[in-house]
From TrEMBL, chain A:
This is Nitric oxide reductase subunit C. One of its GO terms (molecular function) is metal ion binding. It comes from Litoribrevibacter albus. The gene is norC. Keywords: Heme, Iron, Metal-binding. PROSITE patterns: CYTC (PS51007).
From TrEMBL, chain B:
Keywords: Cell membrane, Electron transport, Heme, Iron, Membrane, Metal-binding, Oxidoreductase, Respiratory chain, Transmembrane, Transmembrane helix, Transport. GO terms for molecular function: cytochrome-c oxidase activity; heme binding; metal ion binding; nitric oxide reductase activity. PANTHER family: CYTOCHROME C OXIDASE SUBUNIT 1, NITRIC OXIDE REDUCTASE SUBUNIT B. It comes from the Bacteria. This is Nitric oxide reductase subunit B. It catalyses: nitrous oxide + 2 Fe(III)-[cytochrome c] + H2O = 2 nitric oxide + 2 Fe(II)-[cytochrome c] + 2 H(+). It comes from Litoribrevibacter albus. Its EC number is 1.7.2.5. The chain crosses the membrane at residues 12-36, 56-74, 86-108, 135-156, 163-183, 195-220, 232-255, 261-288, 300-321, 341-360, 381-407, 427-448.
Length: 146, 469
């Protein structure tokens, strides 16, 4: 750095730069929030889906799985599990029997706890995963395996 | 130590290191579960161990940041801390709340914990890194407010240096951004979007201000370089951190619902995010080369230099590797993310906290020139064991990630291997990572044991050697 670059110039760069980018970020945030209704599948956000999200959180599913690529990477991605496991035709049936069969008890295999959810709760969780699968994610994940 | 009240940071540092050790133990449990899937099941399921691992990380870093602030703010402001007693009370409140939360994770099922802590009234739990019960989150806010009041008043009545102003700005931002953890809408896309306001704007925004100011403080102390020079660097580094990091948040908005323009904005700005870290490395080496004094605490200087280098590699290089949208499309949520996360957090934040501890702890224990040479040698063993093994952990996870992308992500649907089958194929990398984790554990044992090694003042020892020769 040349000596002509003074401390007050550095400070102005910090203050000006951060204020400018904070304002830009706020503007972009407002625009994103305005555009989300066309992308986030909110028309299908029923009470049942909201209940499913609450169950997802209360049981810390994110501690093993990822959802839209975020979370832990110990168990499969569930953002698209609705399509991977049967879609409209049979996802719910698959999901319920899968949940009730846990833990599988295969020695050495990663094990999922039994959460003892009621039939109604499993329906809500399945509805939440279906809703999540229909959020527009710029075509992520690259294939059905997530 | 110039001011008596600086001593309040001691319990903060000690507790931070205890939690750090706990974090590593749970890291080893997780590493084992990656290869022996049912290890400790059902007593400690993976999600519980992971929550303890990441929450201990966040909390020990917060303890470290607070300890750093209590130590350096009075000295920078040239006045005693506004209220040392409050600092100690808040320490116990935070330590108790943190301990209870971890015990809650371990002793009751998460759903029970959510129920008994009132998650139904204000649901905030069950989101990655924000798993703390709502009442713990409220407690964090109370502690943060008391803490900010205490150091804010100290600076107001004392000298306002660039270091303490930047540090306070960072800590204020940290508290402010944490408020977004209370916003948890039913709409998943909105939830995820604002979740990043805490997570990204912490680690790639305000925490960088905190890190840079602590680094600047330690460099002034160990090199004796003119404050004016260091302050100018500090301004430029944090300017670059915010200029790149704020819009850089966009690299998390690619695949969770927000509009497509984030693909461009996120890619461009996050590609610039290594710049502040690169400048930090230049800064640290530049200052040490221009030093006017050879501080006898060589371990602290080593930590400062190591921190700058590892932060650049982990946050800068490994972040850049998978930040461009076309690459991230394949690597998002793979082991590449885990590789980057490990080295970035260790390099930037774990090491900056250890740097200030390495400088401040001996001073608080009546050794202004640093620990004895014997103790410093053991501490430096800790440095190298931990740092080198972290490099290997990162490399092994990167290897696992590349293979994972190759087998699971790149082939078309129908030809790609499933997640679980892919994981089996990565077992060798996970075993190697576990071995590297054990070496890391040996490193932390060496590091912690250096606290118990006595011996002569390093300056006295050096003089004695001079007289002999």
């Amino acid at each position: 750095m040349a000596e002509r670059f003074t401390k007050s110039m550095a400070r102005n760069m910090y203050l000006g730069g951060s204020v400018f980018f904070i304002l830009l970020f706020l503007g972009l945030t407002m625009d994103t929030v305005r555009q989300l209704p066309q992308r986030d599948n909110r028309e299908n956000l029923t009470e049942e889906v909201a209940h499913g999200k609450k169950l997802w959180e209360d049981n810390n599913c994110i501690g093993c799985h990822s959802l839209l690529g975020e979370g832990a990477y110990f168990a499969p991605e569930l953002g698209n599990v609705f399509y991977r496991r049967g879609g409209e035709d049979s996802f719910k049936i698959f999901f319920k029997s899968w949940m009730n069969a846990q833990p599988l008890g295969v020695e050495g295999r990663r094990a999922m706890p039994q959460f003892n959810l009621s039939d109604e709760e499993l329906d809500a969780l399945a509805a939440f995963l279906e809703y999540s699968a229909k959020i527009k994610t710029n075509d992520w994940p690259p294939n059905i395996e997530g | 130590m110039k001011y008596e009240s600086q001593a309040v940071s001691k319990p903060y540092f000690i507790f931070a290191l205890i939690l750090f050790a706990g974090q590593i133990v749970f890291g080893l449990i997780l590493g084992t579960q990656y290869v022996i899937g049912d290890f400790l099941f059902p007593e400690i399921p993976f999600n519980v161990a992971r929550m303890v691992h990441t929450n201990l990380l966040i909390v020990w870093l917060l303890f470290g940041f607070m300890g750093a602030a209590y130590y350096l703010i009075p000295e920078e402001a040239e006045t005693e801390l506004h209220n040392p007693k409050l600092a100690i009370i808040l320490f116990w409140v935070f330590a108790a709340a943190g301990t209870l939360t971890v015990l809650g994770y371990l002793l009751v099922p998460y759903a029970t914990l959510a129920e008994i802590t009132g998650n139904d009234l204000l649901p905030t739990m069950g989101r990655e890194f924000l798993e703390q019960p709502t009442i713990t989150k409220a407690g964090i806010v109370v502690v943060a407010l008391g803490f900010l009041y205490n150091i804010g008043m100290t600076v107001l009545k004392g000298r306002k240096t660039v270091i303490n102003i930047v540090l306070i700005t960072g800590l204020l931002g940290l508290a402010l951004m944490f408020l977004f953890s209370f916003y948890n809408p039913e709409n998943l896309a909105l939830d995820k979007f604002f979740w990043w306001f805490v997570v990204h704007l912490w680690v790639e925004g305000v925490w960088e201000l905190i890190m840079a100011s602590i680094l600047a403080y330690v460099l002034i102390k160990v090199t004796g370089v003119d404050r004016e020079v260091i302050e100018k660097w500090l301004y430029v580094i944090i300017a670059m951190a915010l200029i790149t990091g704020i819009i850089g948040t966009g690299h998390h908005f690619f695949w969770i619902g927000p509009p497509e323009y984030w693909l461009w904005l996120g890619s461009i700005f996050s590609a610039l995010e290594p710049i502040p870290f690169f400048m930090m490395t230049l800064f640290a080496f530049n200052m040490v080369n221009r030093r006017r004094r050879e501080h006898p605490n060589r371990a602290a200087t080593l930590w400062a230099l190591g921190c700058a280098v590892m932060a650049f590699l982990g946050a800068g290089v490994w972040g850049f590797l998978h930040t461009l949208a076309p690459v991230n499309y394949f690597t998002h949520g793979s082991q590449i993310t885990a590789a980057h996360g490990h080295m970035a957090f260790y390099g930037a934040y774990a090491m900056i906290v250890i740097t200030i501890i390495s400088y401040a702890m001996p001073a608080m224990r009546g050794r202004p020139n640093g620990n004895s040479n014997k103790a410093q040698v053991v501490e430096m063993w800790g440095f190298w064991l931990m740092t080198v093994s972290m490099v290997f952990i990162t490399l092994f996870l990167t290897g696992a990630g590349i293979l994972q992308v190759w087998l699971q992500r790149i082939p078309e649907s129908g030809e790609a291997l499933s997640f679980m089958v892919t994981q089996d194929k990565l077992a060798l990398f996970y075993w190697l990572r576990l071995v590297a984790g054990l070496v890391f554990f040996a490193g932390i044992v060496a590091y912690l044991s250096s606290f118990f090694i006595k011996g002569e003042d390093p300056l006295v020892e050096a003089q004695a050697r001079l007289q002999e020769s």
